Amino acid sequence: MSAVTALPEPFTHLEAWLPFALPSEDARMRRRLSASMDELLGLYKALVGEMPAIAAHLDQWILADLPVEQKPLLYLALSFMESAMAVEAFHQPGPPHATTPESMVVFPGRAEEMLTRG
After folding, report:
1. Cα 10 versus chain centre, distance
2. How many Cβ atoms sit within 10 Å of the Cβ of residue 95?
3. Considering only CA atoms, which of 87, 70, 82, 92 is closest in space to residue 24?
4. How does pLDDT run across 16-43, given as a tens digit for each residue?
5. Structural domain boundaries of the chain?
6. Cα separation of 116 and 91, whole Å?
7. Residue 95: which residues within 8 A CB-CB, separation 6 or more?
8. Chain segment 58-93, per-residue pLDDT in tens
């Protein structure tokens, strides 16, 4: 899989955060857990005010018909949502007193199946 290099207009100003725009929940979890709190706080601050516009933009399509060029924006929004608890509640990349990331397996959900189908 090639790396994502672009976001759709009008969200190109968020492209610095593309390393967090990963297509699976497992990959996003591992990226979050390997990030520093400074990185997660940067992601959070960059996207928190953008989320209403991102949601409105992506709401133009049903999930099954989301164009491929829009998927990185969805993945970035999901990464933001999955990282928000780390910033808002945990104050660390993962939940306190949780098992190690190496022992976790996140199974892809129906949404990811719909997005990755040929």
Report:
1. 18
2. 12
3. 82
4. 999 999 999 889 988 999 999 999 999 9
5. 12-116
6. 32
7. 85
8. 999 999 899 999 999 999 999 999 999 889 888 777
